[in-house]
Amino acid sequence: MQKKFEDILASYVDALHPIIYINHFDFSVIDDALKNIGQGVKIAEFNNALGAIDFQTKSPMLECDLEHFLKLSMDDGFEIDTFIVLKDVHQEMEHPKIIALLKRIAEDNLYRDDYHCTVFIVSSKTVIPLELENYITVFDIPLPTNIEIMAIINDFINDLNIQAPQEVLNDITLSFKGLNEFQIKQILNLAYQDGGCIDAEDKQLILKEKEQFIKKAGMLEIVNFRETINDIGGLENLKEWLRKKAKIFASLDKAIKFGVDIPKGIMIIGMPGCGKSLTAKATADLFQIPLVRLDVGRLLGKYVGESEDNMRKALKLSEAISPCVLWIDEIEKAFAGVGGDGGGSDVTTRLFGQFLTWMQEKENTVFIVATANDISKMPPEFLRKGRFDELFFVDLPNGEERRKILEIHLKKRSKWNKGIDSIALIKETDGFNGADLEAVVKDTIELAFIDGRTTLTTANLIKSIKDTKSISSTLKEKISQIKETISKIDIKPASRADEK
Ligand code: ATP
């Protein structure tokens, strides 16, 4: 059966796209597709290691380099419809002669009625020379849909004659989302070898293996965490907003049918160490979806178009894993100085534009949590309403919030007792951030252990507070700078006024 992506590929050939760049590592998937769409077509294949090879049998035919191969095959398109398939040739794409030969084939295909030759470049790296930009169409094989995943699993269990309950299969299907056919089959094999069957326990194995694949792709990182919304002291406005959105995520299907817009995401700006990262993790927990981090710095590549290609792949992967929280930490650094004189390069400006368009148009269930300290150099279009559902400002915790944060960290370590006068601690901790307060609790507990005491007192805590240099004293200038920038934009406070 011809797959959906093969139909698209065939339509590209029909529409005379002269060079189709297929970004894929699994050549057998592409060979199958080309066989399906290229019936009656002459297929000439070049492999970087072996030279010209027979497409059907894969046996070497002529040891030669790419230039020689192209010269030999380029005229085939005159007599009969031809596919030229070039594998792993991305490093050759910088040579002027190769570029010129490919251009000539592309132009003949486009402009001569008596010439029919489509070039397929298959490689896991995309390298597009500027001179060929207008002739190359990049084609990404879409990741399998739920129905396709189910078909792959069914084929696998039928082939091996394995019985598995339908609920297990449904569950496993969802866990496989975001992986390609090759990876799914690999994991199924592993699961089968592990226990001789496919059962509910394999879900953990799938998740672990999936994490590995996503890690290897190097563009997104799955973040493991234990934090929940109850670990955040204060920030009541922000938490209430997230709780409302969690209700939508809990019944996405129903909500969409009812006409509710799918939440896009939030931007959390504010003081260092005040719970922004904590909120990203708590959001994923509250929504009951995975947390993946996008590190824009990691997407930067050295070839023309490589960074944009990486960004496209990363965003596509996030969509494939969705629903998920896509966390972009320190977004101001990721897109530093874009479009201004802050040192942003053309590439970052393009990546930024690409990301903005994706955000603007996105109708998927990837929920963005972007966090930032200093937004003074951020392009204003990023903060415009409509990109994010809401912008929140996280300030240094007020008195009541500091009391709650201390309590949370003491309770977490089972050291909270009613004798502790938390009201007294409010006065002593003015200007402390959440990280400072956590450090106070840790120090007090460590001291108590060294001294052989089992309970903590208010005085013990006050002593550690006095020994701690708060953020307000160490980063005075940065804090007033953040406050000044924030005063100029329309942003909601994450804390509730009555917490003061
Ligand atoms: P940065 O801007 O430096 O990345 P951040 O705002 O992301 O900082 P977090 O990483 O969320 O800060 O917090 C640092 C540590 O401080 C966390 O481990 C957390 O335990 C503690 N903390 C910060 N804010 C709070 C809070 N509101 N409630 C409980 N703990 C907090």
Task: Describe the protein's architecture and organization.
This protein is an alpha/beta fold and 500 residues long. It has 22 helices and 14 strands. Strands 4-3-2-5-6-1-7 form a seven-stranded mixed sheet, with helices on both faces. The radius of gyration is 28 Å and the shape is elongated. The model has no long low-confidence stretch (mean pLDDT 87). Bound molecules: adenosine-5'-triphosphate (ATP). Adenosine-5'-triphosphate binds next to helix 11, helix 17 and helix 19.
Spatial shape: elongated
Strand content: 5-15%
Strand tally, please? Answer: 14
Helix-strand category: alpha/beta
The amount of helix comes to 40-55%
Biggest β-sheet: strands ordered side by side in the sheet: 4-3-2-5-6-1-7
Question: In short, what is this structure?
Answer:
The protein has helices at residues 4-14, 27-37, 66-73, 96-111, 146-159, 166-175, 181-195, 202-217, 236-250, 252-258, 276-287, 296-299, 306-321, 331-334, 346-361, 380-383, 399-412, 422-428, 434-451, 458-467, 471-474, 476-487; strands at residues 19-23, 42-47, 51-54, 60-62, 82-87, 117-123, 136-139, 220-222, 265-270, 291-294, 324-328, 366-372, 390-394, 492-493. With 500 residues, it is α/β, with parallel strands linked by helices.
Topology of this structure?
Blueprint lengths: L3 H11 L4 E5 L3 H11 L4 E6 L3 E4 L5 E3 L3 H8 L8 E6 L8 H16 L5 E7 L12 E4 L6 H14 L6 H10 L5 H15 L6 H16 L2 E3 L13 H15 L1 H7 L6 E6 L5 H12 L3 E4 L1 H4 L6 H16 L2 E5 L2 H4 L11 H16 L4 E7 L7 H4 L6 E5 L4 H14 L9 H7 L5 H18 L6 H10 L3 H4 L1 H12 L4 E2 L7
Parallel strand pairs: 1-6, 1-7, 2-5, 5-6, 9-12, 9-13, 10-11, 11-12, 13-14
Antiparallel strand pairs: 2-3, 3-4, 8-10
Helix pairs in contact: 1-2, 3-4, 5-6, 5-7, 7-8, 9-11, 13-15, 17-18, 17-19, 18-20, 19-20
Bound molecules: adenosine-5'-triphosphate.
The site of adenosine-5'-triphosphate (ATP) has 19 residues, from helix 11, helix 17 and helix 19.
